[in-house]
Design brief:
The protein has four helices and two strands. It has 90 residues and is an alpha+beta fold. It has a single domain, classed as Rossmann fold. Helix 2 packs parallel to helix 4. The mean pLDDT is 89.
């Protein structure tokens, strides 16, 4: 976990692609908590915050994780069609 806590920038792409069990949610919270106001974290997801309780199997864990990410953070909402959906599958 310390390895994930120390980089200047941590990028987590596609949060929500797989759900977390209770232990996984706890570990992810610990990473975000250690990085909180110390280092930059970028998270991409297709899930609205209201759906994070299902992702982490616990609304309290979802709320705590979201709180660490958005406090003094910048939310960028991108709408429109995905560029990947226009590409041919090889």
């Amino acid at each position: 976990m310390l390895a994930w806590s120390t980089p200047d920038l941590l990028l987590i792409d596609e949060l929500g692609y797989l759900a977390f069990d209770a232990r996984g949610a706890d570990l992810l919270y610990q990473v975000f908590n250690r990085r909180y106001q110390r280092a930059s974290t970028i998270v991409t997801t297709n899930l609205a915050f209201k759906d994070w309780g299902k992702l982490f199997h616990n609304s309290a864990a979802a709320s705590a994780i979201a709180d660490r990410l958005v406090h003094k953070g910048l939310l960028i909402r991108i709408s429109g069609k995905s560029r990947r959906s226009d590409q041919e599958v090889e």
